[in-house]
Amino acid sequence: MKKNQWLLLIVVVLVAVLGYWLMGGGGKLAGDFFASPTASPSPSPTAKAYKPGSSPVATPSKSYSDLVKEYEGRIIQFGDRCQVTPLNPTYKNGTSIMLDNRSSEARTVKVGDKSYNLQGYGYWIINLSSSSLPKELSINCGAALNVGKILLQAQIY
Length: 157
Prior knowledge:
By secondary structure, the protein is α/β, with parallel strands linked by helices. It has a domain of 106 residues: Immunoglobulin-like, CATH 2.60.40.420. Helix content is 19%, strand content 34%. The chain is built from 2 helices and 11 strands; from the N terminus they run H-E-E-H-E-E-E-E-E-E-E-E-E. The strands form 2 sheets. A 6-stranded mixed β-sheet has the order 2-1-9-6-3-4, with no helix packed on it. A 5-stranded mixed β-sheet has the order 5-11-10-7-8, with no helix packed on it. The radius of gyration is 21 Å and the shape is elongated.
Protein backbone atom coordinates (compact mmCIF):
# COMPACT_ATOMS: atom_id res chain seq x y z
CA MET A 1 0.00 0.00 0.00
CA LYS A 2 1.05 3.53 -0.61
CA LYS A 3 1.79 5.88 2.27
CA ASN A 4 -1.38 7.93 1.65
CA GLN A 5 -3.56 4.80 1.69
CA TRP A 6 -2.13 3.72 5.06
CA LEU A 7 -2.73 7.18 6.49
CA LEU A 8 -6.32 7.18 5.22
CA LEU A 9 -6.92 3.69 6.67
CA ILE A 10 -5.62 4.76 10.10
CA VAL A 11 -7.78 7.90 10.10
CA VAL A 12 -10.90 5.89 9.13
CA VAL A 13 -10.28 3.32 11.90
CA LEU A 14 -9.69 6.04 14.51
CA VAL A 15 -12.87 7.89 13.50
CA ALA A 16 -14.88 4.64 13.66
CA VAL A 17 -13.53 3.75 17.12
CA LEU A 18 -14.10 7.29 18.42
CA GLY A 19 -17.65 7.33 17.00
CA TYR A 20 -18.44 3.96 18.62
CA TRP A 21 -17.07 5.14 21.96
CA LEU A 22 -18.91 8.50 21.90
CA MET A 23 -22.21 6.78 21.07
CA GLY A 24 -22.02 4.78 24.28
CA GLY A 25 -20.34 1.64 23.01
CA GLY A 26 -17.35 2.25 25.26
CA GLY A 27 -19.60 2.19 28.32
CA LYS A 28 -17.51 4.64 30.33
CA LEU A 29 -16.70 8.32 30.25
CA ALA A 30 -13.23 9.36 29.18
CA GLY A 31 -12.18 10.16 32.76
CA ASP A 32 -13.27 6.72 33.93
CA PHE A 33 -11.89 4.79 30.95
CA PHE A 34 -9.04 3.19 32.89
CA ALA A 35 -10.90 2.87 36.21
CA SER A 36 -11.71 -0.62 37.44
CA PRO A 37 -14.79 -0.77 39.67
CA THR A 38 -13.76 -4.04 41.29
CA ALA A 39 -10.42 -2.60 42.37
CA SER A 40 -11.73 0.69 43.73
CA PRO A 41 -12.87 0.96 47.34
CA SER A 42 -16.31 2.18 48.30
CA PRO A 43 -16.55 5.94 47.89
CA SER A 44 -17.72 6.34 51.46
CA PRO A 45 -14.96 6.27 54.10
CA THR A 46 -17.35 4.66 56.56
CA ALA A 47 -19.75 1.79 56.33
CA LYS A 48 -23.34 2.44 57.25
CA ALA A 49 -24.92 0.11 59.75
CA TYR A 50 -28.52 -0.58 60.58
CA LYS A 51 -29.64 -1.65 64.01
CA PRO A 52 -33.26 -2.72 64.45
CA GLY A 53 -35.34 0.08 65.95
CA SER A 54 -32.86 2.82 65.08
CA SER A 55 -31.82 4.85 62.08
CA PRO A 56 -28.66 4.10 60.09
CA VAL A 57 -25.46 5.31 61.73
CA ALA A 58 -21.82 5.48 60.67
CA THR A 59 -19.49 2.81 62.00
CA PRO A 60 -15.77 3.25 62.62
CA SER A 61 -13.80 3.57 59.39
CA LYS A 62 -12.78 0.30 57.84
CA SER A 63 -11.56 -0.20 54.33
CA TYR A 64 -13.79 -1.96 51.84
CA SER A 65 -11.34 -4.87 51.60
CA ASP A 66 -11.32 -5.25 55.41
CA LEU A 67 -15.11 -5.41 55.43
CA VAL A 68 -15.12 -7.98 52.62
CA LYS A 69 -12.80 -10.17 54.69
CA GLU A 70 -14.82 -9.63 57.87
CA TYR A 71 -18.17 -10.45 56.22
CA GLU A 72 -16.90 -13.33 54.05
CA GLY A 73 -19.80 -15.73 53.49
CA ARG A 74 -22.26 -13.01 54.60
CA ILE A 75 -22.16 -10.64 51.61
CA ILE A 76 -25.00 -10.13 49.16
CA GLN A 77 -23.78 -8.38 46.03
CA PHE A 78 -25.89 -6.55 43.45
CA GLY A 79 -24.54 -6.43 39.88
CA ASP A 80 -25.09 -3.90 37.10
CA ARG A 81 -28.57 -5.25 36.33
CA CYS A 82 -29.51 -6.00 39.95
CA GLN A 83 -28.36 -9.62 39.70
CA VAL A 84 -28.00 -10.96 43.24
CA THR A 85 -25.09 -13.13 44.38
CA PRO A 86 -25.72 -15.45 46.15
CA LEU A 87 -29.27 -15.95 44.93
CA ASN A 88 -30.90 -17.69 47.93
CA PRO A 89 -28.63 -17.65 51.00
CA THR A 90 -29.58 -18.94 54.44
CA TYR A 91 -28.55 -17.13 57.64
CA LYS A 92 -29.23 -17.55 61.35
CA ASN A 93 -31.42 -15.05 63.18
CA GLY A 94 -29.38 -12.08 64.41
CA THR A 95 -26.70 -12.38 61.70
CA SER A 96 -25.11 -9.19 60.37
CA ILE A 97 -24.57 -9.17 56.62
CA MET A 98 -23.15 -6.78 54.05
CA LEU A 99 -25.28 -5.49 51.15
CA ASP A 100 -22.73 -4.63 48.45
CA ASN A 101 -23.64 -2.58 45.36
CA ARG A 102 -21.14 -3.45 42.59
CA SER A 103 -22.76 -1.05 40.15
CA SER A 104 -21.84 2.59 39.58
CA GLU A 105 -25.55 3.44 39.82
CA ALA A 106 -27.15 4.30 43.16
CA ARG A 107 -30.08 2.02 43.94
CA THR A 108 -32.64 1.23 46.59
CA VAL A 109 -32.50 -2.34 47.86
CA LYS A 110 -35.31 -3.81 49.90
CA VAL A 111 -34.77 -6.82 52.17
CA GLY A 112 -38.05 -8.05 53.62
CA ASP A 113 -39.92 -4.87 54.53
CA LYS A 114 -36.85 -2.61 55.05
CA SER A 115 -35.31 -0.43 52.35
CA TYR A 116 -31.68 0.66 52.05
CA ASN A 117 -30.25 3.31 49.72
CA LEU A 118 -26.92 2.11 48.34
CA GLN A 119 -24.62 4.58 46.60
CA GLY A 120 -22.77 3.50 43.47
CA TYR A 121 -20.15 0.98 44.67
CA GLY A 122 -21.50 1.53 48.19
CA TYR A 123 -22.52 -0.91 50.89
CA TRP A 124 -24.63 -1.30 54.02
CA ILE A 125 -24.12 -3.53 57.02
CA ILE A 126 -27.49 -4.79 58.28
CA ASN A 127 -28.70 -7.10 61.02
CA LEU A 128 -31.23 -9.77 60.02
CA SER A 129 -33.71 -10.60 62.75
CA SER A 130 -37.28 -11.73 63.12
CA SER A 131 -39.46 -12.86 66.01
CA SER A 132 -41.17 -15.51 63.85
CA LEU A 133 -38.86 -18.14 62.39
CA PRO A 134 -38.12 -19.56 59.93
CA LYS A 135 -38.75 -16.50 57.79
CA GLU A 136 -38.22 -15.92 54.09
CA LEU A 137 -37.14 -12.36 53.23
CA SER A 138 -37.59 -11.33 49.61
CA ILE A 139 -34.95 -9.10 48.01
CA ASN A 140 -35.91 -6.29 45.64
CA CYS A 141 -33.45 -4.11 43.78
CA GLY A 142 -34.86 -0.88 42.36
CA ALA A 143 -37.76 -1.79 40.08
CA ALA A 144 -36.64 -5.44 39.92
CA LEU A 145 -38.80 -7.42 42.33
CA ASN A 146 -37.94 -10.75 43.96
CA VAL A 147 -34.40 -10.91 42.58
CA GLY A 148 -33.46 -13.20 45.46
CA LYS A 149 -34.56 -14.56 48.84
CA ILE A 150 -32.95 -14.94 52.24
CA LEU A 151 -34.02 -17.79 54.47
CA LEU A 152 -33.69 -16.70 58.11
CA GLN A 153 -33.44 -19.60 60.58
CA ALA A 154 -33.51 -19.86 64.36
CA GLN A 155 -30.31 -19.98 66.38
CA ILE A 156 -30.11 -23.46 67.91
CA TYR A 157 -27.71 -23.87 70.80
